[in-house]
Amino acid sequence: MGRADMVYGFSGLHPRLCLLYFIVLLAACMMFQHPVYLLASLLCIIVLLFSLDGGRALKKVIKGYLLIALIISISNPLFSSRGATILFYMMDRPVTLEAIAYGAIFALSLLNILLAFVAFNLVVTPDKLLYLLTPYAPRTAFVITVTLRFVPLLTRRLQQIMTIQKVMGYLQPGGSKKHLMREGMETMHTLVGWSLEEALQTAGSMRARGYGIGRRSSGTAYRMDRRDRLVLWIMTVTGLNIVIGALFGVNHYEVYPRLQGWQWSVQLAIHLLSYAVFLAIPLAMNGKEWLHWRFIKSNM
Amino acid sequence: MALYQIEHVSFRYPEASVAMLADINLTVEEGEFVLLCGPSGSGKTTLLRQLKREIRPEGQRGGEIRYRGSLLDDLEKRCSIEEIGMVFQDPDNQIVMNTVWQELTFAMENLGYPTEQIQRRIGELVQFFDMEDWLQLEVHELSGGQKQLLNLASVMSLRPKVLLLDEPTAQLDPIAAKEFIQLLARINEELSMTIIISEHRVEELFPLASRIVMLKAGEVAYAGEPQETMREIWNGRDEFFMPYLPAVSRLFLGAGGMDAWSRPEQSIPLTVKAGRHWISEYTKALAESLARTPAEASALTDGVSGPPSKTSFAPLNHGQTLNEQVIQQTAQRVVQQAERKDGLQSEWQAEQQTERQAERPGASLLECRDLFFTYEKHAPLVLKGCSLHIRQGEFFTLFGGNGSGKSTLLYQIAGVRKPQRGNIFMEGKSLLRSSTAERSRWIGYVAQNPLLYFTRDTVRAQFKDRIERLELSLEQGGRRGQAFTVSRQERLYELVELFELKESLDQHPLDLSGGQQQKAALILVLLAEPRLLLLDEPTKGLDPTSKMKLAAQLEAIRERGTTILMVSHDIEFAAHYATRCGLLFDGKLVAADETRDFLRDNYFYTTIIHRTAGEFFPAAMTMKDIEMLWEK
């Protein structure tokens, strides 16, 4: 489980607020096509990822995600000829400015969504997710927990069985495919038999401790404290602004048939400001934490 | 009111011809610490499971079990779950959730406790069990001992009135087991919680128990206070249950036959400390009584004027008053005299010498030379220049703490992992350069968990499959027609006879008992007729009776020319049966010697008998040695 380095800043917020934040962020990344909004989101998510774990998670995925984004932004103008501004012809097909812009916007939007999910996993850890899920789907939440435990367990068992097969001389390097398949089936057979046997005992242990006699409660408690309530207010005010503005099309951006120019209005400025404030919530919280520790260090 | 009243309880599993429990009568009072002993299959687990409704097995039940006066069947569901806690044997498979925290709250969440109450109880539990450091970890990151503590803590979260434990430390190493048992003692002492535990670790548990229940074939053979029970078993000369008594007590009782020390008011020592105290008193009294008859005493001094034996008592003489010294020395002389008179010492020496002579000529079989190994690139080294030498026909036991690299070394020899540096030679031939097939013919490896070996639906089919595979691999190796391939069926027959598995041949491997599964795995490995047999903790969780049987079986295998290398924590077992022992520490073999010399030079890593009586009988390692003394 990737434990975020900072558990006091944004990650220390009530899980419901974290979830709310990411819902709004992901929705914005999906809906908004305005390039300024997209770039702001991208910037915010990247800074957030760095503030969460020093960019380790980002480094792991960024190459693949960039490749996906690149492919999308290139392929859109190749396959779509919509748009009025024809730049040049390629193999007798018009390549338009609008198609290129749309490809870039679409790629950026997808990149945002993917990276936002990385941040989401760092902030809303599995146990928080389960806490959120339990009131609505207690059984599903339970099944997920048990599964989380069984994945490493089964992996380890599989390794043990294969070790034995190797020692017994069954698994030889350079054996034929058919031979390997056969041995693989044997491995599975042993694994399933063994695991079922153990599962019976697990069931006994569950019954002994009262599983299934009534409605389960939750031992994990998150209380809404003053800070949580303050953040909730900010999120509500800015969030409502964003939603209402978006419904009225304040930040609407036209690509087709003709690329829209820069059109500034007071409403757009207010809307953008709200969005910026909303995006900055985790950055401000983590930043404050960072400054706090810097400050303590320099005072020591 | 008694906590449990068990009256005429019997139980039979469906489709079983014999009853698992027959007419059990027991009363357990509140606050008692009851120890259930007996061989595996004697019904300990079945009896424990009868005591909690949720985990009672299906079958035919007879008799009545009353919990606090009311029938167990009439007990309210919630009450039964909360007040009766159960901890099972395997640390891993009773854990349900993914993290330590979730597992701790599991039981309370099931019963729908409010969040505040859960938090509060966890706060308490974590303190009591000292779990702060690993509370946030995931279950798979824990050690076996920690897992078992977690299981206990999770059960304790419901604040039970009685704890049932089914061999909770069988899968743990000695250190973790002791920690666990100490915690049980605390729970019993500080919370006055009733504890009913079935366990083979009598040395640690007898001093804690207020009542011993010995089961045999589903019936109560003995039940009573430890002191009474021990005398009863000893006076009745019950050979079967004698191994189930602590070694120190056996030492005492063995001596008891010949003098006034067997008075009933004299309590039987259970621990090394008490045993040592008794022995020093005993020898002192013996010396004094001898001093009163000067003629005998002078005869004694004449007797010991010979050259001092190699194992002198020098360390004892530091910081003692002259008087004590005189007494001690007289006592020692008495003992030495007794030994010499009966030629015991010389007998031992002669025996050892013949043993040595028998083994010395044994050619070198396996040699590990300066092995270096680490599991990951930047992880610390597990083996750091480890060298090991095994001779033909030996029974070598390798000791070492957790993480000392014992199992890793076995893996290296078995060929699962290759060392980063160093080489392994089998009769002068490098194992690293030989093929997997060759290696698997030379070396047999029996893992701790026998379930890893089973792929078929019956034991018989499993054996048949093994023989087919072995013959196939020989064909591929172009070595068909070798002498032993013909007799493989016979060999199987022999092994099945030796390990007493004949009745279980048509059962599913998973339906066998743990001990039988281990034997089946042993047979599977031995069918290849390996030159070297590697055993990873074969005595883990075995009862004393099975251990003795296993020892005899291993001896039979050794006589057929298979050398044995065993990794173990079981010092008592090794002291009885191993020919050589070694200690692995810090990735190196730091000591390797003949078993007797190895144990004599050790301070912690030695038998209970030696720790108790070592000052007085330096050569005595096992009960057998002492018994020889008493008898003379």
In brief:
Chain A has 300 residues and is mostly helical. Chain A is built from 9 helices and 2 strands, in the order H-H-H-E-E-H-H-H-H-H-H.
**Poorly predicted runs of 5 or more residues of chain A:** 1-6
Integer tally of domains of chain B: 3
Mean pLDDT of chain B: 83
Shape, principal axes of CA atoms of chain A: extended
Shape of chain B: globular
Oligomer: heterodimer
Helix content of chain A: over 70%
Proportion of residues in helical segments of chain B: 40-55%
What is CATH's topology name of the largest domain in chain B? Rossmann fold
Series of H and E elements of chain A: HHHEEHHHHHH
How many strands, what sense, and barrel or not for the largest sheet of chain B?
A: 6 strands, mixed
- Across the major sheet of chain A, the strand order is 1-2
Total of helices of chain B: 24
Strand percentage of chain B lies at 15-25%
Using only C-alpha atoms, the radius of gyration of chain A works out to: 26 Å
Walk me through this protein's architecture:
Chain A is mainly α. Chain A has one domain (about 1-205, about 225-300). Chain A has helices spanning about 15-30, 35-55, 55-80, 95-125, 125-135, 140-165, 175-210, 225-245, 265-300, and strands at about 85-90, 95. In chain A, strands 1-2 form a two-stranded antiparallel sheet. In chain A, strand 1 and strand 2 (about 95) form a beta hairpin. The radius of gyration of chain A is 26 Å and the shape is extended. Residues about 1-5 of chain A have low confidence and may be disordered. Chain B is of the alpha/beta class. Chain B has 24 helices and 20 strands. In chain B, the strands form four sheets. Chain B has a six-stranded mixed sheet, with helices on both faces. The model of chain B is unreliable at about 295-325 and about 335-345 (pLDDT under 50). Chain B has three domains: about 5-245, Rossmann fold (3-Layer(aba) Sandwich); about 255-340, no CATH class; about 360-455 and about 510-600, Rossmann fold (3-Layer(aba) Sandwich), CATH 3.40.50. At the A-B interface, helix 6 and helix 7 of A face helix 2, helix 3, helix 4, helix 5 and helix 15 of B.
